[in-house]
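Schema walk-through. Below, the input block comes first and the output block second. Nothing else is stored per chain. Lengths vary across the set, and this one has 143 residues.
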Amino acid sequence: MPRVTTRIRVPFADVDSSQRIHFTAMFRYFEIAEHALMRSLGFPYATTLQESAFPRVHLACDFHAAITYDMLLDVEASVDRVGSSSWTIAYTVRRAPDDTAALPGAAAGAVVASGRMTIVAMNPTTERSQPIPDDLRRALTRD
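--- output ---
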């Protein structure tokens, strides 16, 4: 199944007073990786698939180690499941192997978070689910 990895450095605005990541920031990182995945498939949301809406219906995230300010992360997004009207993306977040800064938290290369996001193809007029468009389905299921 398709996958991409996006590199993100944790900015100061995404941490709390302990300089650890605020949990909501990880969902934005997931979305950044999702958009990179869709662009890699030839379906950038900004310019394609305008006849459908794609609400997220399930989000989950597990934190496995501390993620701190200025840490360099590799966020991998991979298509995990494709159904008739929805698909799920799995995320694995690692401290970048070449992040050698003396920062607190996980060792370089360690998995620091993981998660999943389920997206539904929806008719924006009826607000009902609809089948995933055939060309998108082919892209989501290619090896």
